[in-house]
Structures are given as structure tokens and as C-alpha cells.
Amino acid sequence: MTRGASVEFAGVSKQYGLVTALRPTSLVIAQGEFFAFLGPSGSGKSTLLGTVAGFIPPSEGRVLIEGSDVTAMPPHRRNIGMVFQNYALFPYLTVAQNIAFPLRMRRLPRGEIARRVDRALEMVRLGDFGGRMPAQLSGGQQQRVALARAAVYDPPLLLMDEPLGALDKTLREEMQEELRQFHRVVGATILYVTHDQQEAAAMADRMAIMNHGAVEQAGPPRDLYARPENSFVARFLGEANVLRVVAADPVAAGRLHLRTEEGPALLACGSPPAGIACIRPEDIAIAEAPIERENCFRGRIVDIVHVAGSIRYSVAIAANCTLSVRVRSDRRTAVLPMDAAVHVGWDAQDALVLPS
Amino acid sequence: MAGIGRAAKPWTLGRGYLLLLPLPCGFLAVFFVWPLLRVVLRSVLDPRPNFSNYAKVLGAGPYAHILLYTIEIAALVTAICLLLAYPVAALTARMRGGALQVMTGLIVASLWTSAVIRSYAWLILFQRYGVVNQALIALGLAGAPVRILQTTTAVAIGMVHVLLPFMLLPLIATMRRIDPTLLRAGRILGAAPVRLFLRVYLPLSLPGVNAGVALVFITSLGFFITPSLLGGGRTTMAAMIIEEEADTYLDWPLASAIATILLALTVVIYLAYGRLARVEVTRSLR
Ligand SMILES: Nc1ncnc2c1ncn2[C@@H]1O[C@H](COP(=O)(O)OP(=O)(O)OP(=O)(O)O)[C@@H](O)[C@H]1O
Ligand SMILES: [Mg+2]
């Protein structure tokens, strides 16, 4: 098992003329960590990964691997493994030759290369496919060859830029499981780029949410979901009902009475400054009768969507305030009818108060 | 509400178009296949049905030598074109936007001037007291005017000049389609610049190399204008001797035999090269 390498971004930024691809970013990733970068398209994820690989020289700042500055080191000397979204297998080489490529570049003896290639093929369960050309493989198989090629020289650091992006949903979930297993077995540090939040949450030890070329927040997936630091993170992870606060009055220790732009006044736990209040759809209860919660509103169901395992109601509680409410459902759950007059409610502690 | 309920049908080569097929086929049959056949037939039937014309070409006399020399010059021109065009194409393929347009524009524009005019231009430059000789003397590289015209050098320079675009264009087309992530993959997997070129870029550009080489080599074999203007009198290529036999000596059967042999050689070399190139790609570059 390889020992994973630590990675540190020290004020790394990237400008393309007037375009800022990456704002100054500082981040430390521990040895052996599975770290995901999550964010919308154009948020700078690939740019950040490119600075680690050495393809993109940062405009400012330094990149450190295992504590040593690699900012000026060319990619071929960094000893990093990388898996690309379109796999980037060499089309003129067989599967075995593709996997042997990095070993040949390292001038390993023939016998050693053959042994390692066989072992790598076994690892990704493609033992019989060594002689095939990449074009003769399915997407999932090509993906596994790319993984084998990136890992065959035991790099302490692996970069993956949307490695599962081109696969269909079922295959993607299967490969997620394989990648997690792979990480446990191999022990390398993995930097993983995706814009699929479920994928990031399922696989990563920690993740960073990126937006407009900057890291908005970093931490374990659960923490980010439970304690987002701003409205972007709150909205980006899962769903959130966001209300704009126009006035916040402390009513008791750690409790605020909020008046909102949308109309409803509510009780929430938190402290000023209060810019917005977020309530997760699954934290809101819904019933025809009034609900015994600190916040309770009357409303009308304006939309119903059935998703696997749950029902999502849209409930209008004021002229321009519609809340999204999610309840778990099974075969016996009674579905409330469209246009029904209902009550929705939640406790003060269910609302997150964020500065903006 | 136009178009509702009527899904746009994808364009296909309908039956109707098949009716147009006889036209080009007929044209090719009358103006290409039939004359070609007549040339071949004449080479064996005239003056008597035997292979005497071929015996003459392949026996003593200048003909076999000229055919060999033609192949040599074609190979030389192809090699020079490839060496000159490869780096230029690689740079051009990396250009974007305006620079790329200017570059391809320049290459295509060079095709607008006919080979005759361009060869005449060289004729003037290469004269005994032409610009080139004056420059050589001024630079002290030559004491007296050197003979440039009528040499292989003059013919090769003239032909490279005319044929370079035919090497450049397929190279650029192929190189532009090279996926940059494959180069990144090569680098991160440990390939230093030289090996990255040899192990990744070169094999990916080979289809373009093959197309360009085939195009330039085959065109060179039948080149007439440029070699006759720049080499005429001393340096003779196959097309020139064919013209001479037919035009000056009115020996059409012999001219037909040489033409047939040139055609056969071209086809054989083309097929052999095609096979060689395929083997190269699949074997030695692994
Ligand atoms: N070579 C370049 N020249 C100019 N702008 C660039 C260049 N490369 C990237 N950018 C810009 O930098 C920003 C960040 O790009 P980046 O590729 O890092 O995004 P990303 O998060 O990986 O997005 P995606 O999910 O679509 O891959 C984008 O706005 C992009 O347009
Ligand atoms: Mg990207």
C-alpha cells in the first residue's frame, strides 16, 4: 500500500487576461484523504486540479506536495496519477500497452513491466482484455483501464477530473463503489472533481464547494450540509427554502424573531447578522390540522412531485412565498390532494440563520 | 404553426439522386477509362501484338534509368516536403482564430498561382546571372556563376515549392484533430518532451503523414511542367520522356509502354507503402 501524499494550495490563483479562472485559494489536503471538489460549471475545479498536475502554471501562489514546492516542476516529474473525463487512452496502443506506458517512461525492466501490467489488469478485473484496442472496449471498461494506467506506478497522489462523467447512472454508481474500494486498498491521496453532489457526498472524506473561482466552504459532506456558511452552499447542497431577512430582533438567548421580505415572520435559532434564513424541505412538517411547532403557517398545496421514497409538496403560504416540503413516503402514505388547505411547521432550531 | 406533426426527415441519398449517377460515370468512362485502356492496349498491340515495346523500355537505352531516376526524385521531393511541412503544420495546428485563418489562407493562396508561373519564376532566379548566382558570388560562396538550372537541385526545389501545400494541408487537418488531453495524459504519465513527441504526438499525426506522403509522392511521379522547365535538356523525368517519344519521335506505342509502366509502378509503390504504413503504426510504435 502506498502512503498518500499531502497537498497544499498556498494562495493559488489563475488569471487568463481579464478572466479570473481561480481566485487566491488556500487549502490543505491530508495524506491519504479522498477529497472532492464540487461546484457548477466554470467554477474553477479543473483549473485548480491543473495547477496540481502542472498543466496550468498558477498566476500567483504555490502548490506543495508532501511539503515541497512543485509550482515550477514539469508534469512528467511530479509522479502523479491522473484519470481524465474522456479517459484519454492512447488509441494506437493496446490496453496492456496503455497500462505499460507510464512504466516504460520510468524505464522499468521488461519483466517488471509485464508483472505490474498483469497485476493492474487483475485489479480492475480486465485480465483477458490486455490485447484489445481501447476502441473495442465499453465506456466502463475504458474507465477501468484509465484507472489501472493511473495507478500502475503507485503514485502517492491521484487526480480525477470527472472520471465518471461520461457513464450512465447505473454504471456510475457501480464505479463509485469500485473507486471507494480502490481508495481503501491503494491508500493514495485522491483529488476528485465532480459536479454531482451525491457522488461527492458518497465518496469523499472532505469536500470543497467551489463557485466563481473560489472555495466557498470545505469540510466533511455532512457538516457542509448541516452547517452551510452561506446561502450558496446551503442552496447548492440539497434543497433549501431561502427567506430574506429584513429585520432580526433577539427575543431570548440565541433566539431571533425574524421578519422576512417574503412576508412570514418566524422564530429561529442563531445570532446576528441575519441576512437569510434557510429551512430544508425535509425539516418541515405538513398536515391538514395545525401543527405543534414553534413556526406554523397556513397554506395551500400548489404542486406535488413524487420522487423515489418521498413526496415533494409546494405550499404557498403567502402571496410570493412558496415553500418546498418533503415527506418520506411508502405505499401506505396518504397523499394530500392538490389545492388542499394545509398547515406547515418547523421548530426554531430547524431554520439556519446565515449572514447572506 | 408550421412543422407541427411533421417531424423533419433526416436528409438521405434518395432514389432520385441515383438517376444522376450515369452522368459522371459516363464521363469518366469516356474521358478517362477508355483512353487509359487505349494506351495500355496500344503498348502491346502496336506495331505488332507482342511485348517488344516493353523490351525496349526495360532493355538498353535511357528509359529504365529515367524511370528509376523519377522514383528517386519523387522520393527526395516527398522527404523534403515532409521535413519542411511537419514543424510548420504542427505550429499551425496549434493556432486559433485569426492566426490560423491567415496561415491556412496563405497556404491555399499559393495554390492559386499555376505551377507554370511558379516554375518560370525559379527559371529566372536560377539563371546563369540570376539572383541566386549573384547572391552566391556576393557572399563569396562561389567564384563564378554555378550551374543550377538543369540539375536535380533545381528540379527538386521547384517541385517542393509546388507540392508543399499538398503535404501541409493533410498534416494540419490531422494535427488539429489531435486531442490535447492525450498530450496531457502523456505528460502526467511521465513522458518528457522528446519522448512525448515520439510516443504520443508522432503516432497520432501518422495518418496525416501517410496521406501527405502518398499525395506528394504520386503527384511527383507524373510531374511534367516543373522538371521540363527547370531540368530540361539534362535532367529528365518519366513524364518528359513520354512527351518526347510521343511528340518528337511520334513513337506512340513506346510512349504508351512507358506510361503503362509508370502507372503500374505508381500503383505498386502506393500499395506497398499503404501496407508498410499500417504495419508501422500497429507494430513499431507500440
Ligand atoms: N485557457 C483559458 N482561457 C480563458 N479562460 C479560461 C481558460 N481555461 C479556463 N478558463 C475559464 O476559467 C473558468 C474556470 O474554468 P474551469 O475549467 O476550471 O471550470 P470547471 O469548474 O472545471 O468547469 P466544468 O465543470 O465545466 O469543467 C471558466 O470560466 C473558464 O471559462
Ligand atoms: Mg472541468
3D structure, described in words:
The complex is a heterodimer of chains A (356) and B (286). Helices cover 24% and strands 37% of the residues of chain A. With 356 residues, chain A is an alpha+beta fold. Chain A folds into two domains: 7-233, 3-Layer(aba) Sandwich (Rossmann fold); 239-354, Beta Barrel (OB fold (Dihydrolipoamide Acetyltransferase, E2P)). Chain A has a six-stranded mixed β-sheet, with helices on both faces. Chain A has a five-stranded antiparallel β-sheet with strand order 13-12-11-14-20. Chain A has a five-stranded antiparallel β-sheet with strand order 15-19-16-17-18, with no helix packed on it. Chain A starts with 6 loop residues before the first strand and ends with a strand. With 286 residues, chain B is an all-alpha fold. Chain B has a domain at 51-93 and 150-284: Orthogonal Bundle (MetI-like fold). Chain B has helices at residues 15-18, 22-45, 52-58, 63-94, 97-109, 115-125, 131-138, 152-176, 180-188, 193-221, 225-231, 238-247, 252-284. In chain B, α9 crosses α10. The N and C termini of chain B lie far apart (58 Å). The chains are: A alpha+beta (356), B mainly alpha (286). Chain A binds chain B through residues 53-55, 74-76, 78-82, 84, 86, 88, 90-94, 97, 101-102, 105-106, 149-150, 153, 159, and chain B through 179, 181-182, 184-192, 195-196, 199-200, 203-204, 206, 281-282, 285-286. Bound molecules: adenosine-5'-triphosphate and magnesium ion.
Describe this structure in a few short sentences:
The complex is a heterodimer of chains A (about 350) and B (about 290). By secondary structure, chain A is of the alpha+beta class.
Question: Quick one: biggest sheet of chain A?
Answer: 6 strands, mixed
Number of helices of chain B: 13
Backbone structural class of chain A: alpha+beta
CATH architecture of the largest domain in chain A: 3-Layer(aba) Sandwich
Number of strands of chain A: 20
Strand order of the largest sheet of chain A: 6-7-8-3-9-10
Principal-axes geometry of chain A comes out as elongated
How is the CATH topology of the largest domain in chain A named?
Answer: Rossmann fold
Give the name of the CATH superfamily of the largest domain in chain A: P-loop containing nucleotide triphosphate hydrolases
Structural class of chain B: mainly alpha
The number of E-state strands of chain B comes to 0
Instruction: Characterize the main sheet of chain B.
Output: none
Pair with the biggest interface: A-B, 28 and 23 residues
CATH topology of the domain at 51-93 and 150-284 in chain B: MetI-like fold
Query: Regions of chain A with pLDDT < 50 over 5+ consecutive residues?
Result: none
List each distinct ligand once.
adenosine-5'-triphosphate, magnesium ion
Helix content, binned percent of chain A: 10-25%
